[in-house]
Each structure stands twice: as structure tokens, then as C-alpha cells.
């Protein structure tokens, strides 16, 4: 069991799941090193929560390895007891494979996959020096199933899962004090769809508004509930943290119909998008 104490480094902390995690970890007595490329959002959050605990803010683009290395150096200097790393920063991309170009796929991979690898590489040497430490890598339910329109996102989130599961096994075999959980949220009511980029080949302007509307109708779990679920998963050292009934349903469906889950899932998603 990993106790929530010491200090946590969180990427993508200015919004959504990362922001809610910062608030909830702070409530449980954790100091915080908060990273995001949205510096104004980070500062506003620090003012909101930083009265009782030590909170440092770091403007970081997780796609840049040098910026993450500097973040780790500064975060560890500010919080020598740092024992939790949450690789959470992520983005989404609207469009089919033929509507997104190579540069857009690489943009997404550089954040959603390589950003998480850079974060792990930068913090792991320090985490290994702690008596007990935890890495939380945020994948998605789209790291378990892959709907159409998610070629880049699902590929990156499957990669996050493969990287994380292999690293967890390496740490376990080595008897390391560092534990690792991979998180697979279903729909969480955040700004991810509004913050997404649109594929260069998407010409119909209505598609973007429609896709945001569908996501927001289907995303039932609050960021606070997602954060509480992640904290419970850290405490119980759960290897895989599924969030939401939608994620649990899709996980089970994938086990029963690994090659043919899409049609029944499509019917279910359509109902959810209608608020049913
Ligand atoms: N919301 C969902 O339904 C959902 C579902 C499954 C997985 N996820 C994953 O959860 C994580 C958090 O997403 P969210 O829903 O809270 O989204 P969000 O858009 O509300 O928050 C993402 C945060 O990441 C930051 N960010 C983006 N690119 C960055 C970069 N290059 N460097 C530093 N920070 C960067 C953004 O500024 C933002 O503050 C992501 O990895 C996402 O893929 C979300």
C-alpha cells in the first residue's frame, strides 16, 4: 500500500483531471509540483490551494525532453520528499486517419506518449531513492479499445499501456520501492474536446461542434470523482485503474469480443451521446 504523503509532481495540472488531482492530493497533505504549458492556469490553481501546503508551479511543455528534465530538477530541489509522479498531460485530435496528417500524429504522440516517457525517465532516479514511491501513468479506455476516429490517440494510449505494464514488471522483478499504476478513464467531464486540434482534412466546420457536443453528453464522471478513484488506486497499489461505468463496460466487452467489440459498443455510445 502506498501512503499519500510527501509530495507529488503532476503534469497537465492546470485543467481537468490533473487539476482535480492537485486539489485532492493537497487535501490529503501532499505538497505539489505542478506542471503545465498553461502557466496562468497553474498560477490560479496555486492561489486556490496553496495556503496550507508547499506548492511550486512550473511552465513545462512535456513534448520537450529538456523542459521535463529541468522540471524534475526544480521540483526535486523544491520538494526533496517528492514520492509521487503523475504523468497526466494529454491532448486529443479530431478526424479519421485520412483527415489527420503525419505532423498532427507526431504532435499528439510527442505529448501523449513521449511526454509521459520523458517524465518517467526524468523522475525515476529520484523516486528510487525514496522508501516508497508511485508513478501514475494516464492512458485512457482508448488504451484498451480503439474506436474509429482515434487512430493517433488510441495508438498513443495503447503505447502508454504497453510501456507502463512492462516498466511495472521491471520494477517489480528488481524489488524496487517504486510502484506503477496505469489509469484508463472513460469519459470525464473536462475541456479535453474543446482543447483538441482538428485534422487538416476535416472541412466540415459543424463536425467539431458536433464532436464536442457528443463528448460532453457522454462524459459522465466528474474530474473530482476521477481524482478520488486515482488516489484510491495509488493507496491500494492497483496496477490498472479503470474509471467510470463506461470504462468498466468497455473493458469487459473487449475481453468477450476482442475482435468484434465495435458494433455493440457503437450502439451503446450512441445511446450515451443522447443522454440515455
Ligand atoms: N477527459 C476524458 O474523457 C479522458 C478520458 C481518458 C483519458 N483522458 C486523459 O486524461 C489526461 C488529462 O486530460 P483532461 O481530460 O483532464 O484534459 P484537459 O484538456 O482538461 O487537461 C489537459 C491538460 O494538459 C495540458 N497540456 C496539454 N499539452 C501539454 C503539453 N505539451 N505540455 C504540458 N501540458 C500540456 C493542458 O494545458 C491541460 O491543462 C490526458 O492524458 C487525457 O488523454 C481523458
UniProtKB/TrEMBL annotation:
Organism expressing this protein natively: Bradyrhizobium iriomotense
What family does the Swiss-Prot or TrEMBL record give for this protein? Belongs to the short-chain dehydrogenases/reductases (SDR) family.
Q: Which SMART domains match?
A: PKS_KR
Q: Where is the Ketoreductase domain?
A: 6-191
Pfam family, any one: adh_short
Q: Mind telling me what this protein is named? A: Acetoin dehydrogenase
Give the source's domain of life in one word. Bacteria
Query: What are the UniProt keywords, alphabetically?
Result: Oxidoreductase
